[in-house]
């Protein structure tokens, strides 16, 4: 369970994050779906991390190939 101490202060959140959370957690039903939202966000973050890793590897390979051209 997430405790109050682990949450960032509202002042530290960007307007985009606040808008997103307001849209997703706008009612008691929305609050009930919070754990599902956390799971979805974790999955999306993991996917983005993997994409970043893949792109970093491709960039590295491209730079090595480019180095041999000159």
From TrEMBL:
<protein>
    <submittedName>
        <fullName>Uncharacterized protein</fullName>
    </submittedName>
</protein>
